[in-house]
Amino acid sequence: MDKNEKWLQWAVELQSIAQTGLWYGEGVFDKERYERIREIAADMISYKTEIPVDKVKDLFCDESGYQTPKLDTRAAIFKEDKILLVQEKNGTWSLPGGWVDVDVSIGENTVKEAKEEAGLDVTADLVIAIQDRDKHNLPVYVHKICKVFVLCSVNGGQFEANSETVASGYFGLDELPPLAEEKNNAEQIALCFDAYHHADTWKTILE
């Protein structure tokens, strides 16, 4: 999906307006109109992507309340000037991470994901960057996502194959394996290296 296709931005904005209206609206007729706007947004995405409209509604129109971005954390773990990546079942590699659970903090989620995907006990030391995913990663998702990259220190543990990852390894910046670009790209990993080399003076990047 082309990052610059305006129709997706319009569909996301329509969904956001409709969701907010459904949450705060009081009149029956107003809610019917907002529900129709939400249906139109789902129809637009289904028409352009050929994804069945029922599936689009399940993924895109199943939340309530004021619409806010989802959060994704990524752990940057280093050893001897190399960064830890975990291999997914499709063969690509990523920083350990995932969606932030509703009952944990950013730091706690980073620690949890490092344990689950890499088998490591870590501490979350420094927020490297908080990024708008749409500005950095493809494909574009219908949900707005903020990615949080966190510099971590290892206290122990070892990798074990699990339901999400099949291997782990440390890589230099000039020897990166095929990346899961929808989760992290070479530019983002280079940013993590930069933060690692300048941790004492690093200022969190917001972009």
From TrEMBL:
Q: Which domain of life is it from?
A: Bacteria
Under the heading Gene3D superfamilies, the entry gives: 6.10.250.1120, Nucleoside Triphosphate Pyrophosphohydrolase
Single annotated GO MF: hydrolase activity
* InterPro entries in the cross-refs: NUDIX_hydrolase-like_dom_sf (IPR015797), NUDIX_hydrolase_dom (IPR000086), UDP-X_N (IPR059176)
CDD domains, alphabetically?
Answer: NUDIX_ADPRase
Q: Keywords of this protein's UniProt record, alphabetized?
A: Hydrolase
Q: Which family does it belong to?
A: Belongs to the Nudix hydrolase family.
Name of the featured protein: NUDIX hydrolase
